[in-house]
């Protein structure tokens, strides 16, 4: 799989595949304890390779390690979490 970087200053997890950037963006609620995943962006040129899922999983694993809850506001992140019940405990 491709290397996924976490950029906390820009609140995103990102990777680059075949010269195309892909990312998951997030924000925090006012308490700082709930990560809201707001966007999952993978260009069509690199779609269908599991990149979006890998980005969401990286974000969720980071949230778990930090003790945060997750609000999957992005429809892709919400659907991915529904398909992976091992992350149910993270839902805000």
TrEMBL record:
Domain of life: Bacteria
SUPFAM superfamilies: Acyl-CoA N-acyltransferases (Nat) (SSF55729)
Pfam families cross-referenced by the UniProt entry: Acetyltransf_CG
N-acetyltransferase domain span: 5-92
PROSITE patterns, A to Z: GNAT_YJDJ
Record protein name field: N-acetyltransferase domain-containing protein
Natural source organism: Thermomonas haemolytica
């Amino acid at each position: 799989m491709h290397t996924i970087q976490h950029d906390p200053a820009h609140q995103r997890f990102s990777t680059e595949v075949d010269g195309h950037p892909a990312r998951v963006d997030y924000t925090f609620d006012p308490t700082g304890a709930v990560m809201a995943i707001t966007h999952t962006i993978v260009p069509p040129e690199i779609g269908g390779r599991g990149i979006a899922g890998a980005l969401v999983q990286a974000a969720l694993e980071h949230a778990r390690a930090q003790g945060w809850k997750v609000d999957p506001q992005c429809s892709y992140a919400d659907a991915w979490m529904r398909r992976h019940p091992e992350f149910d405990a993270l839902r805000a």
